[in-house]
Amino acid sequence: MDNNNFYAVIMAGGAGTRLWPVSRKEKPKQFQKFTSQKTMIQETFERVSKVVLKENIYVSTTEGYKNLVLEQLPEVDKKQLIVEPLPRGTAPAISLVAKRIQETNPEAIVATIASDHAIKNVEEFVISLSTAMETAGKHPDKLVTVGINPTFADTNLGYIKIGKEFENSHQKRIFFVEKFIEKPNKKQAGEYLSGWEYLWNAGYFIFSAKIFLDWAEKLTPNIYAVITNQGKDFLENYKNLETLAVEPAIVEKLDVQSRLVVPSELKWSDVGNWGALFDFFKDSLESEMIVKGNHVDVGSKNCLVYSEDKLVATIGLENIIIVETDDAILVADRNNVSKVKEIIEKLKKDGKHLYL
């Protein structure tokens, strides 16, 4: 299949506050080096460029991050930026993406890929994304996603329930999506882990730009009206849109026959918080202590220490996260790091915007 019609859009507009105090509003996690010597958006671009021509890789971001994108991805031209006026969730953002790419190439098949995920087995990503794009190219009336075989009972992720088999490509089996499931409780997540038909939802969506716009017009007419009338009132109209995720707004409303999933054995993490970063490294490093920076320890285990400058000394700690930056220090129980968002809310309430 002619891959000149294949486009990837790296979604890079998020604020990533759950990895505070390193990830900040001014420079969120996709622009930080958490998993290698490259930033997360640089890693993402490198992976995607193994599937899609570099000139067909676009970046969806907001006005505040435009310069960071161009600085960190010198291969990306200004015309490859799709700039949201301000964040309004993935439903408006992806609709805007579809509109822009469709204007560039009416036959375009688009993959929307998060800018802030970590993947160890890049070759599996390449196979899975290639299969998904080829499938969407052959069947442009279908929306295709990549589902990840879960390795533990995660309650912080959405899930995909596999339906009947659609076809067997030369590389992967492809199934209909029976339903999308929001973040489950611990009992449900355990059941999903033991059942082969449940996959993690990584939020990668592959579709015909033209057909997606048809779905948006039918299912989210307010969004469609705003993105197709980008006149002098566009900023104000976009600002007035409701913040909506693409799954409940569009994807979940599609007929079962219109949704496909490619199951994948990705060794993957959304690096959603400091605990997820610890888990990502623990398996590969086979270490009880995950450390970046200057650190000395006596008798601690199952801790993550991230130091930008100062020496951090630890004694007899267990299941603790310590993060040191030039103006803030986070110390947290590894099992409670999801509550970082509550710290952010307290800082906002106290007017301490310096730390956001």
Element-level helix/strand string: EHEHEHEEHEEEHEHHHHEEHEEEEEEH
> Which radius of gyration do the C-alpha atoms yield?
21 Å
Taken from the alpha-carbon principal axes, the silhouette is globular
Helix vs. strand class? alpha/beta
What is this structure's SSE topology?
Layout: E1 6-11, H1 40-48, E2 57-62, H2 66-72, E3 81-84, H3 90-104, E4 109-114, E5 118-119, H4 122-138, E6 143-148, E7 159-168, E8 173-181, H5 186-194, E9 198-208, H6 209-219, H7 221-227, H8 234-239, H9 246-249, E10 259-264, E11 268-269, H10 274-285, E12 289-292, E13 295-298, E14 303-307, E15 312-315, E16 320-324, E17 329-333, H11 340-349
Parallel strand pairs: 1-2, 1-4, 2-3, 6-10, 12-14, 13-15, 14-16
Antiparallel strand pairs: 4-9, 5-11, 6-9, 7-8, 7-9, 8-10, 16-17
Structure, described:
The chain is of the alpha/beta class. It is 30% helix and 27% strand. The chain has a 5-stranded mixed barrel with strand order 6-9-7-8-10. It has a 4-stranded mixed beta sheet with strand order 12-14-16-17, covered by helices on one side. Strands 5-11 form a two-stranded antiparallel sheet. Helix 6 (209-219) crosses helix 7 (221-227). The radius of gyration is 21 Å and the shape is globular. The mean pLDDT is 92.
